[in-house]
Amino acid sequence: MSIGDLRDLYQEVILDHGRHPRNLRRIDDANRRARGNNPLCGDRITVYLKVGADGVVEDAAFEGRGCAISTASASMMTEVIRGKTRDEVDALFAAFHKMCTRDEAPGADPALADDMERLQVLAGVRGYPMRVKCATLAWHAMEAAMAGEPEVTTES
Ligand code: ZN
Q1: For the chain, which residues make up each domain, given as ranges?
Q2: What distance in angstroms lies between residue 78's CA and the mean position of ligand 1's atoms?
């Protein structure tokens, strides 16, 4: 498969998640939630989490509106963080953030390999700081929710 074909495939995955977001709903009994705001692009997302007593993410969902990148990223995030502990989620975000911002291979941690492969479709934002904010908005909101903060903005 050529680089061009791969790029088209990634584009397809992003558009699919953007048009048919997974877990686009409110969790009524969520015990963590936070709003994320990306004023530069106009993306607004609320992330809902249901975290068990053992610290495992039992359910993750989001509401809001934004561009295809922010919506696709939120959609994929809610899929990959489910069933993970806070530490695992933090490690995944660190690796994802690195993938979006640095020109190097993502984390060598084999435990994250499968998830990073799925998130790889968003690596195209690298080199576009505005798009990086779109791609990481849901993750910042999720981290804020975990930390008990009600809101996060990319303007800082
Ligand atoms: Zn955006």
Answers
A1: 3-148
A2: 17
> What are the tokens at 13?
């995955």
C-alpha 141/C-alpha 138 separation (Å) is 5
| H helix or E strand, kind and range, residue 156 | none
3-class state of residue 103 by DSSP: coil
pLDDT in tens, 75-109: 999 999 999 999 999 999 999 999 999 866 655 68
The predicted-structure confidence for 30-42, as pLDDT tens digits, reads as follows: 999 999 999 999 9
Q: What is the C-alpha separation between 112 and 92, in angstroms, rounded?
A: 7
Ligand 1 centroid – CA 69 distance (Å): 6
What is the CB neighbour count within 10 angstroms for residue 57? 22
Distance from the alpha carbon of residue 126 to the mean position of ligand 1, in angstroms: 14
Give ion ligand 1 contacts, CB < 5 A: 41, 43, 67, 70, 134
CATH class assigned to 3-148 = alpha beta
